[in-house]
Amino acid sequence: MTTTAARATATGRRPGRGRAGTIAGWVLRLGLAAVFAGAGLAKLAGDAAMVQMFADIGAGQWLRYAVGSCELLAAVGLVLPRLAGPAACGLVGLMIGATLTNVFVLEVSPAVTLAFLAVSAVVAWTRWDDVRTLAVRGRRATASGSAGGSPWT
Q1: What region does 69 belong to: left with phi over 0, alpha with psi -120 to 50, or beta?
Q2: What is the DSSP code string of 116-130?
Q3: Cα–Cα dist 80/29, whole Å
Q4: 109 in helix, strand or coil?
Q5: pTM (2 d.p.)
Q6: Which of 53, 91, 102, 111 is the most buried (most CB within 10 A)?
Q7: From CA 9, how far away is CA 20, in angstroms rounded?
Q8: What is the spatial distance between Cα 107 and Cα 8, in angstroms, rounded to a whole number?
Q9: In sequence order, which residues have a C-beta less than 8 Å from that of residue 147 and are 6 or more positions away?
């Protein structure tokens, strides 16, 4: 007799999800990945609109590179099943920052960033087991590190 986890691994589906749920999850993740890959590449390539927007923000062009890099890394993470949850969590944080920037600095509508925030939150929620697994592994690595608790010392 096989367990639910073994069946999920064998079929590529997660426990408790039907075929429609799996397909919907992939559609959301691939859609987000495409949008954020495009946005990240535009920022990193120095698209004139992106350069101007970050000049208007006033934090410097380093922020454009940082945000573009985060967007591109999140796009890659979204297509890798074990990293999809953490990548979506990162996008939630990024979209919170973008929403606040739109409202308080650029004084434009936050509708688009709120929509991407919502979709990212749905993906993060549906992939929460992956986030929890990564956090547990991180805690174990820290605990087995040095006496100071940091794996970097």
Answers
A1: alpha
A2: HHHHHHHHHHHTHHH
A3: 10
A4: coil
A5: 0.80
A6: 91
A7: 17
A8: 46
A9: none
DSSP 13: P
Q: In percent, how much of the chain has pLDDT > 70?
A: 84
- What angle is formed at CA 14 by the lines to CA 84 and CA 69, rounded to 5 degrees? 5
31-83: pLDDT as tens digits:
999 999 999 999 999 999 999 999 999 999 999 999 999 999 999 999 999 99
Contact indicator for 67, 96 with CB cutoff of 8 Å: no
Alpha helix (H) residue ranges in the chain: 4-11, 19-45, 48-57, 61-79, 81-101, 111-126, 128-143
Q: Indicate the length of the chain as a whole number.
A: 153
